[in-house]
## 1
Amino acid sequence: MSLVKSDPEIQRGNIPRVVELVEKKIVPYTDMRRTTQLAMGKNWSKATPEQQNQLIFEFKNLLIRTYSGALSQLRDQTVQYKPLRSSPSDTDVIVRTVVIGKSDPIPLDYRLEKTNDGWRVYDINIMGAWLIEAYRNQFTNQISQNGVDGLIKFLQERNAMLAGKK
């Protein structure tokens, strides 16, 4: 948050700069394979390894653009962390936060998994809606209508559209 607030380029809405920040500061702490696999649900096993890699790549790009758009809007907000309820042996936790700004507080929770590389985010809940569940519904609809390749094409087109809005 402090990097977002202190960077004049980000404050001016420079989306490529925000994307760069997200790629450096958020993506390395996100388990994109698990996020994509959970968003695909039972359809994950229908995808070939090559399709799975394409899905991870395209979904990562979509999430980067989504995070970047949200971060570019940050101005006077602060984040309050709620007490963590977990035990040392837990391998899956929910970190609960509240974003405080000029309007109503916004609950923002993160699901994290303990991996060999440390804790990694794999899902986010904004105001009661888990990201994976929302995308799972979209992905299931796309796959039922157009197959796995149709979902990949949909994600590619969505990413191209968002990239054009720089």
## 2
Amino acid sequence: MGGTAASMLMLFTVIPCCFASDVLKKTRLGWIKGNQLQVLGRTVDEFRGIPYAHPPLNALRFRPPRPYGPWNGTLDARSKRTACPQVVPNPKAYTGITLTEDCLQLNIWSPQTRTKDVVPVLVWIHGGGFTSGSSALDWYNGVVLAARTGLVVASFNYRLNLLGFLDAQTPQAPGNVGFLDQNLALQWIRANIDQYGGDASRVTIFGDSAGGMSVHGHLISPLSSGLFTRGNQSVYTYVFGHQSKKNPLPSWMGIPHSYDVNYMFGRPLVDQHNFTAEDARVSELEIKALSTFAFTGEPMLPGDHPWPKYTSDNTVSVYISGDNVTEIRDFHMEKCEVWRKFWNM
């Protein structure tokens, strides 16, 4: 119910921006053509559908991904939007998105700066229970986040369902290739993001739902060591308790799953039809926490107050509800206690 509600609420969140022109860039993999957008008074170069792996078809199906590139000619990255094969939970949300096995592509939003200095990179991993979702969905569009923070934003697709996670215990289908897709995308970003103004030594990965689980997987996987920089930092947590006054759902239903994604990607800053001024302030709060973490490893609260660290001795979380930002302790601790009976946590 919560996930479905979130999908319906985010479906009509449109990003108003002005298309300026095409942008042509020479990279070490070849020439690439993208869009140049004007958002919040800033110019952002957008590149969609950049292949990071060969299409996982025929003999490559179920197998680990093979790196793609360089390409011949000019790669058109202006409008390609794909999703890996899945049972689509909300067809309207996938309007303009092609379901295809040739889906191993990534997107980059690169804000133009006055200097040639590279900036930190935010890499988004989409959710969907490892069975659905796509980086091409409208509510994952990174243009506002890039414009507001001045950071490079990237996202990518990975194989889902049986095509991504079938384990036949054979070389032809070794299992978890969806995670290997993610790993290869992160390798591509490390090797090439400097061509788009990003600093490969300052990469932060983040995600929702299955994307958040994926972040945890990369934290413990030796294959992902060195592909991002903020994984070994202190833990900071928050509970999102804000519900927009324009949310059509009754308050007794609570906050839909992944509802904060809209705020993290800055939708309330550009969509006054579906969001309020209070929503915009909450969005600014989330974006500031994310950007300061990307720069320093420590998120900041309004007024430049430090975000409290979560430790085993100090189980404190930030509770966000409108303009009220408070600290709460022992959130869902009773559920943790269940597992302490089996593991020494």
## 3
Amino acid sequence: AFLACINPFWSERTWRELLFDHLRMTENEAVLYFNRQFEKSIKEYDAIQAEALEMAEEMTFGIIRQFCIR
């Protein structure tokens, strides 16, 4: 809710989904690592990195729209 309040171009629903997905994936990666399933852990880490890039893109587009940067 906080991000949606500070930028009207950020959807609370979208951010909620992105952040909860990120937390779920991070937890899953930690469990895989501690269970010594290293190959699966690496694949999950790669997915987390892709998710982080998606979050960065969402944030960037919101900032651009908010300040009308062209």
